[in-house]
Amino acid sequence: MLKKLIVVTGLWLVSNSANASQIVRLQVEQHADVYHVYVEMNIDAPAERVREILTDYEGLQRLSQTITSSRVIDSADNRAVRVLTRFEKCVLFFCMSLHKVEDISEDLDGRLIVSMVPDASSFRSGQSSWEVQSTINGSRVIHQASLEPDIRLPAWMGRSIMKNTLRQEIEESFENLECLSRKECQAQPEVHPAQEQDLDDDIWDS
Which of 37, 65, 114, 132 has the fewest beta carbons under 10 Å from its own? Predict the structure, then answer.
């Protein structure tokens, strides 16, 4: 059993070291109903280009297939915006349609600070930050987040399933972030207007 574990661990390390996304650290933990995430990743692209992708709030669906749409619904100035994001995710035969409204601002150090608006979201709470540092070979992205979903999960969906699902979503998003930053991704199909339901009124009336 120990030998098998060592082999599997070794294969995981080899596959991730060969992965262009160069994820340095990925940690997903759960305490009570709150999920905590910490990610560090090196990207072979200028920091300015990475920030351009992260702040394209009308095109966040390019980062993950889970995200169905995103839009800026309020903007006080160039340094603070309110963004509505809708996404869908299926785990086995259980599917979730969620949305979140977040206030995004930039602090004095250039970090993006994200605060959830719980009354307008499918989450009880949430906050995160994005930091993009310039390096010799490109840039390093540091992302921290805590999320508390406001949904009732089926009994069979244990913590390990949710944590693994969240980990997979993070890996996909960061791989797409590098692909887009290096301009190596193919253009994603645009969402037809008829496919988007304008739920803004429903969200604010709820």
Answer: 65
Phi-psi bin for 157: left (phi > 0), alpha (psi -120 to 50), beta?
A: beta
**Helical axes 159-181 vs 47-54, angle rounded to 10°:** 120
* Distance in angstroms (rounded) separating the CA atoms of residues 59 and 57: 5
Secondary structure class of 103 (helix, strand, coil):
strand
How far, in Å, CA of 39 to CA of 22, rounded? 11
Return the closest-CA partner of residue 86 out of 115, 52, 35, 120.
Answer: 120
Quote the pLDDT of residue 12: 38
Q: What does R_g of the chain's alpha carbons equal in angstroms? A: 18
pTM of the shown model: 0.77
Read off the pLDDT of each residue in 68-97 and give the average, rounded to a whole number.
86
Please give the pLDDT value at position 33: 85
pLDDT at site 155: 64
